[in-house]
Design goal:
74 residues; 32% strand
């Protein structure tokens, strides 16, 4: 099972990198706007070409849960 962890960016506020721990690979970044809404931006080859996240999430925890659901069973 893929373990996905959120790591805050060292320089940018409101930016997290989602890391697949077992592979030590970045799978997405999460950008938070001033209102606190988060947007997932997939990174790397592990995504289906048809997968997109067209909505905003109410914080990093909700965005992280959505990415973990996508990677469940991998």
């Amino acid at each position: 099972m893929a373990t996905i962890e959120a790591r805050p960016d060292k320089l940018a506020t409101g930016l997290w990198w989602l890391i697949w721990i077992e592979r030590e690979e970045t799978v997405a970044k999460v950008e938070q706007d001033p209102a606190g809404l988060c947007r997932i931006v997939p990174e790397g080859p592990h995504w289906s070409p048809m997968k997109s996240f067209g909505r905003s999430y109410d914080g990093i925890n909700q965005a992280l849960a959505e990415v973990r659901l996508y990677f469940k069973g991998r």
